[in-house]
Automatic annotation (TrEMBL):
Biased composition regions of type Basic and acidic residues, renumbered to the chain: 913-922
Record-annotated ATP-grasp domain positions: 498-534
EC number: 6.2.1.13
N-acetyltransferase domain residues: 740-895
Xref: InterPro entries: Acyl-CoA_Synth/Transferase, Acyl_CoA_acyltransferase, ATP-grasp, ATP_grasp_subdomain_1, CoA-bd, GNAT_dom, Ligase_CoA_dom, NAD(P)-bd_dom_sf
Protein name: acetate--CoA ligase (ADP-forming)
Protein's organism: Candidatus Methanoperedens nitratireducens
PROSITE patterns: ATP_GRASP (PS50975), GNAT (PS51186)
GO MF entries: acetate-CoA ligase (ADP-forming) activity; acyltransferase activity, transferring groups other than amino-acyl groups; ATP binding; metal ion binding
Spans annotated as Disordered: 895-922
Cytoplasm as UniProt keyword: no
First-level EC class: ligase
Length: 922
């Protein structure tokens, strides 16, 4: 379901062009020509204050004088006139608007003020606006060219969205020349309203769009974008070119993390977390879209290269290694097969050089052998014109074996040249086999496909359970942060930062603060030698640079001398620094690995987590990776895997493997700190020492945003990925007194969900899924029902514990629609637990959650013979309607109900601990 306004923009039955003109070369003239000449079947109304006719069509002085309410208004008038025209559209009930005009925020404050006025009008009349400063849109399927470009691409299955008008124009030119088809083309301009997230939602529900290609310069609403992409990533790939790869956002930072995490690194992490395929160039967009639409995803990075020329084979091998892939190791069976059919002087390895006189049979047998080899995840087939073989015959031979055996492996071709291989490439294209001008293009596409698969795993891989920790109280830490702000401090002391870590069960080295040499000596004696002394000053961030750290102190005289030396060096380093004392901590002698775990607040994406090689050389090696909270153990491990230090953590020389599971847990707890405290601007452990058993935070620093400390912040508003909604946990009793936990489902629940699914009867499966489901269930299917985006979907599971085993009894889901005002519910109870009132309770509870989310309407769609579900919803006050499609729709209008209302659900959703206490008392 999409918002009706967007549908009126992309499928309008009538259009008004405000600023239409008959002056050749003007934007208004081109818009008119493009709409009336390609064959658009809708009605076009020119609007021009001075003329009564434009290009032979009657014109109107304003939109309020049109003979009907049109679906779409296209505005191409001077910027200063646009707000009044938008107001006129709102009054005339025209809800879809495209603003072609330029001259807004890109020209300065006066233009920004015009945008602000337009946004006020948009909210007043509930308008959907594309632009301003955009080219417009094209919908080839209905011959709609609402742009000022004389190009109409053919109909296809790709939606293309461009933030750059000039680049969009060039793309249309390329697409026309290359015969590439589009389902839609959109130039978004300044995106004061409709943005990338809205369009991904719209095209995600469009049956004629199979993938979305995007040119992005910057996002405006990161949370909406990520939510939309995550929702459709598995079924409709989103492929992105992002410009500005080397723009650094952290010019001045109070921590290593701030200095290391540039803007592009954060975008890259966000794209991976959302399931986006990020490519480097415009050509890669179309190459990747073609392959993803026609090929299975590679199971791994192992590529076999088949070639009739050594040079291109070596180039392809260089490309796969440079991209982080691997040359597949041919199995003994494959080598034996090839030895029996290839000349004695073939390469006997990968790349597989068939030599210049390669025949169609030689190619066919080699491709077949590679398809059978389990060591190979993908095949690139290269041909260069030489010898007497007909490339078209090689292509036909290759097509035959690919169609017969290539259903489980990625296969791409590169028949190099033009005229000599034109027929061969035509054969590949007609048979759905991607072909490329160069081997490097084919290899790049293979690796993009592999990265896409890896990104999907981030969405759908089931993480392991963390040990059950109680959620710590935030109040004591809030006091620390507020006290620092009252003292006009941004930088927390080391002891304050370590107190926060300790509160979240992240192990820290014991730290005491000494004001004098005598105190330092006494604390050293209390802790036990050897000890470490460090300067404590908000103005001295990097202590080592100031000579503010002395290690391995073994006696009281050494303590006193080190104390005085550190104070003197600190004053010399920064005479203005406020010296709060010297910290005394034990000297940790354990052999282990030093890593950094840090965070900073990105202005667009909110908290960003950094992991990598730690210590004083962290900025020298720059071996780091970043991710977005909230994390689970799977996501934490994936961030680690992107670094070189991760390979060392698995065991290096005489050092045993680090306790990686403990490191995962620490990263998840660290992530939770960022979820709980939006006031933290930067937060860092460096180094975190970890060995095969334990871990210790040896040094830590935190920076707060003083302006946000006393501000009222909505829970989790600072995050771009919605965390687990703990507030929806509650308890309920079955009629026999057993206590059932109602709680949001989470990724770790996949085994429980599968167990429940396999207990369903055929009838229950048909009622729930509208048909039979093939068993056994694939992970890609089951994970969809447990790994969800809580911004747009809430699934409440009813769980019961019996004899120490947890069981899932039933699930109810609420899918919030893109309009944010309506939601669809689906529900089901496992057969052994039916007729106990569980379904009634689940539906009742999800209605209250719908109120909490401020929905106006919730509805359910059911099969007409699902009498019990229909009766249940009727009992709950839903209106029952039989649809032309042969289903039953039940609707509940929450807005019109007199009782209850948004927010009242809070009374019924108590923290789990309080509910459990109530159950015990009963």
């Amino acid at each position: 379901m999409v918002t009706s306004n967007l549908d009126k923009i992309f499928n309008p039955k009538s259009i008004a062009i405000v600023g239409a003109s008959d002056e050749e070369g003007s934007v208004g003239y081109i818009l008119m020509k493009n709409l009336i000449e390609p064959g658009y079947k809708g009605t076009v109304y020119p609007v021009n204050i001075r003329k009564s006719e434009i290009l032979g069509i009657r014109a109107y002085p304003s939109v309020d004088q049109l003979p009907e309410v049109v679906d779409l208004a296209i505005i191409a008038t001077p910027a200063e006139t646009v707000p009044d025209i938008v107001e006129e559209c709102g009054k005339a009930k025209i809800t879809g608007i495209i603003i072609i005009s330029a001259g807004f925020k890109e020209v300065g404050p006066a233009g920004k003020a015009l945008e602000d006025r337009i946004l006020e009008i948009k909210k007043k009349y509930n308008l959907d606006i594309i632009g301003p400063n955009c080219l417009g849109i094209i919908h080839p399927d209905i011959n709609l060219n609402a742009t000022f470009i004389y190009k109409m691409p053919r109909t296809g299955s790709i939606a293309f969205i461009s933030q750059s008008g000039a680049l969009g124009s060039a793309i249309l030119d390329i697409a026309t020349h290359e015969n590439i088809g589009f389902s839609h083309f959109v130039s978004v301009g300044s995106m004061i309203d409709v943005d990338f997230g809205d369009l991904i939602d719209y095209f995600g529900t469009d049956p004629k769009t199979t993938s979305t290609l995007m040119y992005i310069e910057g996002l405006t609403n990161a949370r909406k974008f990520i939510s939309a992409v995550r929702h459709f990533a598995r079924t409709k790939p989103v492929i992105v070119v992002k410009s500005g790869r080397f723009a650094e956002s952290a010019k001045a930072a109070a921590s290593h993390t701030g200095a290391l995490t540039g803007e592009d690194m954060v975008y890259d992490a966000a794209f991976k977390r959302a399931g986006v395929v990020r490519v480097e160039g415009i050509g890669d967009l179309f190459n990747c879209a073609e392959a993803l639409g026609r090929q299975p995803l590679p199971l791994g990075p192992n590529l076999a290269i088949i070639t009739n020329a050594g040079g291109p084979g070596v180039m392809a091998a260089d490309a796969i290694i440079a991209k982080g892939g691997k040359l597949a190791k041919l199995s003994p069976e494959t080598i034996e097969t090839l030895n029996s059919v290839l000349p004695p002087y073939w390469s006997r390895g990968n790349p597989i050089d068939l030599l210049g006189d390669a025949t169609p049979d030689r190619y066919r047998i080699t491709v077949e052998a590679c398809f059978k080899d389990d060591n190979i995840d993908g095949v690139v087939i290269i041909y260069t014109p030489q010898g007497v073989a007909d490339p078209a015959e090689i292509a036909r031979s290759t097509v035959g074996i690919c169609k017969t055996m290539g259903f489980c492996k990625t296969y791409l071709t590169s028949f190099m040249g033009y005229e000599d291989v034109e027929e061969a490439n035509r054969i590949f294209t007609e048979n759905g086999i991607p072909t490329y001008y160069t081997p490097e293009q084919a290899v790049d596409t293979f690796m993009y496909m592999y990265q896409y698969k890896r990104n999907l795993e981030l969405l759908y891989e089931t993480p392991g359970e963390l040990p059950a920790d109680t959620v710590p109280s935030k109040r004591p830490l809030t006091v620390i942060i507020k006290d620092a702000a009252r003292e006009d401090r941004e930088i927390l002391t080391e002891s304050e930062t370590k107190h926060i870590l300790d509160h979240y069960n992240i192990p820290v080295a014991k730290t005491l603060i000494a004001k004098t040499g005598d105190e330092a000596a006494a604390f050293a004696s209390q802790i036990g030698y050897p000890v470490v002394l460090k300067i404590l000053s908000p103005q001295i961030i990097h202590k080592t640079d100031a000579g503010g750290v002395v290690l391995d102190i073994k006696s009281e005289p050494e303590v006193r001398a080190a104390f005085d030396n550190i104070i003197n060096r600190a004053k010399e380093y920064n005479p203005e620094a406020q010296i709060q004392g010297i910290t005394v901590q034990p000297m940790i002698r354990r052999r282990g690995y030093e890593v950094i775990l840090g965070a900073r607040t990105d202005p667009l994406f909110g908290p960003v987590i950094l992991f990598g090689r730690g210590g004083v050389e962290v900025e020298l090696y720059r071996d780091v990776a970043v991710g977005l909270p909230p994390l689970n153990r799977t996501l934490a491990r994936r961030i680690m895997e992107e670094t070189k230090i991760y390979q060392i953590l698995k065991g290096y020389r005489d050092l045993p493997q680090a306790n990686i599971k403990l490191l995962e847990e620490i990263m998840v707890r660290f992530s939770q700190i960022l979820v709980d405290f939006p006031q933290l601007k930067e937060f860092e452990i460096n180094p975190l020492l970890i060995d095969e058993k334990e871990a210790f935070a040896l040094d830590a620093r935190g920076v707060i945003d003083k302006e946000s400390v006393f501000a009222r912040i909505e829970p989790h508003a600072h995050l771009v990925i919605s965390p687990y909604p703990e507030k929806y946990r509650t308890l309920w009793r079955l009629p026999d007194g057993r206590v059932v936990l109602l709680r949001p489902i989470k990724p770790e629940d996949e085994p429980l969900w599968l167990e429940m699914f396999y207990s369903l009867s055929e009838e229950s499966i048909r009622y729930r899924f509208f048909g039979a489901i093939k068993v056994p269930i694939a992970h890609e299917f089951s994970s969809r029902y447990t790994n969800i985006d809580y911004d747009r979907e809430i699934a409440i599971a009813a769980e019961l514990e019996e004899e120490g085993r947890r069981k899932m009894l039933g699930v109810v889901r609420l899918f919030v629609q893109p309009d944010g005002k309506s939601g669809e519910i689906v529900f089901g109870v496992a057969d052994p637990w039916q007729r106990l009132g569980i379904g009634l309770k689940l539906v009742d509870y999800i209605i209250e959650i719908g109120r909490d989310k401020k929905l106006d309407i919730i509805y359910a769609v059911m099969l007409p013979d699902n009498y019990r579900a229909i009766g249940l919803l009727k009992e709950m006050g839903f209106t029952i309607d039989f649809t032309p499609e042969g289903t039953v729709r039940a609707t509940l209008n929450l807005k019109e109900e007199e009782e209850g209302g948004p927010g009242e659900v809070q009374k019924g959703i108590a923290p789990a601990a309080e509910k459990e206490a109530e159950a015990v008392q009963e």
